[in-house]
Amino acid sequence: MAEFPLDPPLSKMLLMGEELVCTAEILTIVSMLSVPTVFFRPNGREEESDAAREKFAVPESDHLTMLHVYQQWKSNGYGGSWCSDHFIQVKAIRKAREVRSQLLDIMKQQHVEHVSCGTEWDNVRKSVTSAYFHQAAKLKGIGEYVNMRTGMPCNLHPSSALAGMGFTPDYIVYHELIQTSKEYMNCVTAVEPHWLAELGSAFFQIKESHKTRKEMRAAEKLQKKEMDVQMDEEIKRREVEEDKRQAIYKPKSSARICTPGTGSRMRTPRRAGM
Predict the structure, then answer these.
(1) Domains in the chain, number
(2) Is 186 in contact with 170 (CB distance < 8 Å)?
(3) Considering the domain boundaries, does residue 32 fall inside one?
(4) S-S: 31 plus which of 59, 96, 219, 241, CB 3.0-4.6 Å?
(5) Is residue 82 one of the residues assigned to a domain?
(6) Burial class (CB in 10 A: 0-12, 13-18, 19+), 191
(7) pTM of the model
(8) What pairs with residue 141 in β-bridges?
């Protein structure tokens, strides 16, 4: 992580992308996060700008929206006129391309494989979760969230792709907070709760909410009792096996063995005159 000139979460995201076979997509997202926003809203053309931005929106993730913008720009030959037509800042997205090229060189030096996940977008979202699980939020109201660690109230920014989904996901992670009249979350991605428990086990765990503490303690005692019974049965089984083994290999009663020089002696026949 220290070899990359990035914030620790972005370095973690990039390295996790190798494990989840999506470094090509994560590399683009990290590059886009390393520059100012590529979208702009000129005065008098706000509606046109918002309409153009909605065309790139991926409902589950602002990070995937950034990836979509870069891929479309690439497929159109990295053209400046295309950026102007779609209200994209040319300088910002070209800077992201330079950052991506530099990071790719570092990846090659560190032997980090450059691979693509194709259309397995859950791998990309899981990589984002691995980097920002400490900035996870849970749904509280319509468009309102609370940070799962600090309890700080947060809100979806109106420009977020998740704000136009038609519904709000229960769990999200965000890149940073922007404070204006409210605490708005910037660059938000919807995540699955078991991802948080898996990738951020130091902070989160899956709890069976339908059980009370008393029921959970009773279940733990029952489980312990069952384990003790199984242990006793295992000990008894091993003792029986040991007895059988000793019975098989126990030597039989010692038979009488004739040893030379003992027992009856052979008499030499008497000769005549002796």
Answers:
(1) 1
(2) no
(3) yes
(4) 96
(5) yes
(6) buried
(7) 0.73
(8) 144
Task: List the chain pLDDT tens, one digit each, 274 residues.
Answer: 888 999 999 999 999 999 999 999 999 999 999 999 899 888 888 889 988 888 898 988 999 999 999 999 999 999 889 999 999 999 999 999 999 999 999 999 999 999 999 889 999 999 999 999 999 999 987 768 999 988 889 988 888 888 866 678 899 999 988 888 888 898 999 999 899 988 888 888 776 655 667 777 888 888 888 888 888 888 988 888 888 888 776 655 555 555 555 555 555 555 555 4
Residue 71 maps to a domain: yes
- List of residues 6+ apart from 159 with CB closer than 8 A: 39, 50, 53
**Which helix (H) or strand (E) element contains residue 11?**
helix 8-19
DSSP result, 175-191: EEEEESSSEEEEEEEE-
Question: If phi over 0 gives left and psi between -120 and 50 gives alpha, with beta otherwise, what is residue 251?
Answer: beta
